[in-house]
Write a structure and sequence with these properties.
Beta-lactamase, Peptidoglycan synthesis regulatory factor (PBP3), Domain 2, 2 domains, 32% helix, 28% strand, elongated, Peniciliin-bd_prot_C_sf, protease, serine-type D-Ala-D-Ala carboxypeptidase activity
Length: 404
């Protein structure tokens, strides 16, 4: 704990120094740190990818069609299925998908790993269906898996019907999601999935060439995510467009020790293809200027609790024993905070417990709050084990005392 206090003190000093520097930036760009007020997108979200906190939202919970941004979930599910080396035989259903399409023919064979580049770089609709059928057998079963995965991620307002994001509807509603849910899916893809590095590798690839398994045809894919060339730290992204959805986008940026995600739904219709890039830059710059990373941790000080009916080796006649308790060594975290935001900490610890007590047993909690909402919590744990005082232990003590 002593070592940890030194580390915490050093971090506080660093924060003070950073705060002075950031204060100058704020002073020079006072207008830039204000929340964006004029966005083209009907729905938009700026998210801190490290913890999922929404830093800015515009109609963030409104369900809308989301076009080919759907394909980020298709891609990550395919990667997690470990089907990369699988050979796909193209079905009539896959080959008949509308533009934008690779142009595969029924009966042709491809490696699934190659079609992931077709999916994410060129947004080919036929590749999406071929991938879905290879992973789950049918588009319908793959859509079920997509919706199950979305729920696991925490998306409560997402309903996907197709793996490519084409406009569709069924008895449960339209194919669509919210800006908040789409950001959560992107967060999973780039920070939480066991295949996150492979996902980033694919979505960062600028050009890719491949052929069918038999080598009869060659295909060339170019990445259409212009954001990769717009800002330093641009990490990943996926565009989308349908008649119902309009232009959509989900993108991520990593700058030093912070990662931001932007999602845009209904961001204009033809001829306003560039609106999504304007909104993306505006939101990313707002996040970088208005929010700074801070290490959040509070030293709880020395803590003890009283164990009742406990074995006390030092004073056998006492029926209680003080037990040292502490928070885990990793009980700190980083988050982005805006100027004026403060994290409050509450310490909750039991006054006493009944023996036995085991080392590591939870006896309380350190809770961190921002704007009244709990953002993190860490257990306060016993640092030692304490046995329960029993008749036989007392008898043993008496016998030892008499023999002495």
């Amino acid at each position: 704990m002593k070592k940890k206090r030194y580390i915490a003190g050093a971090l506080v000093l660093v924060q003070m120094l950073l705060g002075l520097g950031m204060g100058n930036v704020w002073a020079k760009t006072a207008e830039s740190e204000d929340e964006p007020k004029q966005l083209y997108a009907q729905s938009a979200v700026l998210m801190d990818a490290d913890n999922g906190r929404i830093l800015f939202g515009k109609e963030a919970e409104v369900i809308r069609p989301n076009a080919s941004t759907t394909k980020i979930l298709t891609c990550i599910l395919a990667l997690e299925s470990e089907a990369g080396e699988r050979v796909i035989c193209v079905s009539r259903n896959a080959a008949s998908q509308p533009k934008v399409r690779l142009g595969m023919k029924e009966g042709e064979k491809f490696y699934l790993r190659d079609l992931l580049y077709s999916l994410m770089l060129e947004s080919h609709n036929d590749s999406a269906v071929a991938i879905a059928e290879a992973v789950e057998g049918t588009v319908e079963k793959f859509a079920d898996r997509m919706n199950q995965k979305a729920r696991e991620i925490g998306c409560e307002n997402t309903h996907f019907i197709t793996p490519n994001g084409l406009d569709a509807s069924d008895k449960d509603g339209i194919h669509g999601t919210t800006a908040a849910d789409l950001a959560a899916i992107m967060r999973y893809c780039i920070t939480q999935s066991p295949e996150k590095e492979r996902f980033l590798e694919i979505t960062q690839t600028r050009e890719y060439t491949f052929g069918d398994v038999e080598g009869k045809r060659k295909f060339f894919c170019r990445n259409h995510n212009a954001f990769l060339n717009m800002m330093d730290g641009a990490l990943s992204g996926k565009t989308g467009f349908t008649n119902d959805a309009g232009y959509c986008y989900v993108g991520a940026l990593r700058e030093k020790n912070r990662t931001l995600i932007v999602t845009l739904l209904a961001c204009g219709w033809p001829n306003h293809k560039s609106y999504k890039w304007s909104d993306t830059r505006k939101l990313m710059e707002y996040g970088l200027l208005a929010y700074a990373p801070y290490y959040i941790w509070k030293d709880p000080g020395k803590m003890n609790l009283l164990a009742e009916n406990a074995v006390n080796e030092e004073s056998p006649w006492k029926r209680t024993k003080k037990v040292k308790v502490a928070v885990r060594e990793d009980s700190g975290f980083q988050m982005l905070l805006k100027e004026g935001e403060q994290v409050t900490v509450k310490k909750r610890i039991e006054e006493n417990v009944k023996a036995p007590v085991t080392q590591g047993q939870a006896v309380g909690e350190m809770e961190y709050f921002l704007n009244g909402e709990k953002i993190a919590s860490y257990q306060i744990e016993a640092c030692e084990s304490v046995k329960k005082r029993s008749f036989f232990w007392c008898l043993k003590c008496v016998m030892e005392w008499l023999c002495f």
